[in-house]
Amino acid sequence: MAMPLWAGPAKPPQARPAAAAPAAQPGPCDSVMRRLPNVSRTLCTAAGLQPGSGRSVRGVPLYTRDVRQEGAKLRVLVMGGIHGDELSSGSVAMHWIALAMQPAQMPQPVHWRFVPVLNPDGVMQQPPRRVNANGVDLNRNFPTPDWERDAASYWEKRTRKDPRRWPGKQPLSEPETRYLHEQMQSFKPHLIVAIHAPYGVLDFDGPSVPPSKLGRLYLDQVGIFPGSLGNYGGVHKGVPVVTIELPNSMRTPLDAEMRQMWLDLLRWMGEKAVGMGNAGR
Ligand SMILES: [Zn+2]
Fold first, then answer.
1. How far is the CA of 154 from the centre of ligand 1 (A)?
2. DSSP category for residue 110
3. What pTM value is reported for the model?
4. pLDDT band at 177 (very low <50, low <70, confident <90, very high)
5. pLDDT digit string (tens) for 113-144?
6. Fold topology of 51-278
7. How far is the CA of 82 from the centre of ligand 1 (A)?
């Protein structure tokens, strides 16, 4: 066999300096979800979060997980961590992913979409912050009618320009709210469950009969705010929004309590919301 005319210098396998390789993006279980209380690595890994299409202001993926039970017609969107300093809300969403993946004794099959942390930039701050990286309260940034008139005046007069409650310059100005808005348009949920803390109550906006309790949380409808998800989804889009206010921002309820809340949610969905999935919206 003829010798090759030219043989290049042998390249050692490590010739490329390590710094030239693109930095590996840390996965959700090495970054955002590590901030959440009572979320073990095992639970996080099993949750199978996907980066999805959305990014925060700082470019963190808005991790999402779909759990679709066979034959599901009912679509339910569960969202936590819209306020970055309500860490327990993301934890409960993560525990509910695990429950949704268990073989179901549900009254009806459900297509779940979980967004456990909508505001990862706020969660990642030390200490965690309610608002996103642009200083916007994401739960005042949804396009309710007359937002331009009401959101700013509410902020100025009712909150006295509380920087924790700034609604932003315009509705959907933030990538995080745009992502959730897109999910509402494409996924077309029949029900939205928004998890917050720390007021220890249950709130409800929209049609249908609200659940009277989830676990130890009882219904106490506290009114609506310009630009809030409950106002936008429940009042103006006709999608029922269950807002859960956990009793503590930094600690989750006990596992048994999180499970009881989940079972109460399923039972209410079976009793009152069964028509939602059959409406074929
Ligand atoms: Zn909140």
1. 17
2. E
3. 0.89
4. very high
5. 999 999 999 999 999 999 999 999 999 999 99
6. Aminopeptidase (3.40.630)
7. 7
